[in-house]
Structures are given as C-alpha cells and as structure tokens.
Amino acid sequence: MTLGIVVSSNGAVNALEANQAAIGGRWLGASFPVENFQTYTSPFGYRSSPDGTGSSTQFHRGLDMAAPEGSYIRSWWAGKVVEVSDNSSCGTSVVIESGQWEHVYCHMLGFVGQDARGKYITDRAGGMKIYDGQTLPAGTRIGRVGMTGRTTGPHLHWGLKYASQWVDPALVLRAMYAEQNRGQISSR
Ligand SMILES: [Zn+2]
Fold first, then answer.
1. How far is the CA of 145 from the centre of ligand 1 (A)?
2. In the chain, how many domains are there?
3. How far, in Å, from the CA of 59 to the mean position of ligand 1?
4. Where residue 147 sits, what CATH number does that domain have?
5. Is residue 125 part of a domain?
6. What's the 156 CA to ligand 1 centre distance in angstroms?
7. Ligand 1: centre distance to CA 107 (Å)
8. Residue 37: domain span
9. How far is the CA of 147 from the centre of ligand 1 (A)?
10. Residue 86 needs a FRET pair 20 to 30 A away by CA distance; which of 101, 110, 120, 158 works?
11. pLDDT tens digits along 17-68
C-alpha cells in the first residue's frame, strides 16, 4: 500500500509519497501514541504565538494531544531511541528513529540521567527507564504525559519527520484510522 502524504508547509515539504514499504509494512504495525487521549489541542502548522500578543506567528512542528497527567505514552512504531533530552522547550523528551521516520515525544514526566550503560530518561513513579540507543517494539510504553518544558497543560506534543522533513501527524493518524476501519488494525 502506498500512502500519499501531501504537506504544504513553509516549502519544507511539498508532495511526499511515503511508501509504507519504507518501514517494512503497513499501518497495521502502528500504535496510537497516548493512552487516555482526550482531545487535540493544537494542530500542526502556523499558529499565533502562544504569548497571547497575536503579533507573531510560529510554525508548530507537531500535534498536541491532551491527556491527563501520568497517562502512558507509547512508541508509535518500532525503532531505535536516537535522542533523550530534558533541557529544551520540548521538556523531557525522546526521539525514536524508524527507517526514514523520526518520531518525537515532548513534555513527559521525569528527567535525563546517566549511568554506565549510557544516557537515559527516567520516570520512577511510572516505572520508566528508556536508554539512548535502545530498540523498542511498536506500542512500547516510553513515558508518561507531563508538563516539562514549555507547556500550559498536560499533553503529548507528538512530532513526525519523514526523510528529515516535518509531516503533519494528523495525516498519519487518519491513514491509521482508515486501515482500522477496514477491520485490520487493533484498537488503541
Ligand atoms: Zn506542541
């Protein structure tokens, strides 16, 4: 199955044909990224600056998904952790690489630590410890929804890149649902 993803955003991505073969399968392997999902609070794309002045716009490189603090976050696809961080506006965060895709999870509970095995993020109360370089199956719990970094409420900021270019995660979720509606994907 070939999914046509068309994103027009700042010229960064024009017409992207994301062939699912690139990650070895179809959307059947994909996991919805957050448990206890409530609502989408901010879409991908240009928006007014959240400082409230309305005088500037910025590009929002992801989809904001509200869920109660402490809700588990799951890896959208099988992949390898390529970055763990807790010192940016993204807060405590993980980046996972799956073939040509990169998925980013921000504002999680916990913090970055380091031991003999390497750098990791930990959320002790949630029983989470994810190492940089670790490989994970799709649907693995990788953290919990928090408010680290720049955020006004608990949510998952979920970012997706394909071939180094930002993609609207809503398009991917829509494609996942389309397949689910054909009765082939397990519910989230
Ligand atoms: Zn966001």
1. 13
2. 1
3. 10
4. 2.70.70.10
5. yes
6. 7
7. 9
8. 30-170
9. 11
10. 101
11. 444 434 445 677 889 999 999 999 999 999 876 555 556 788 999 999 999 9
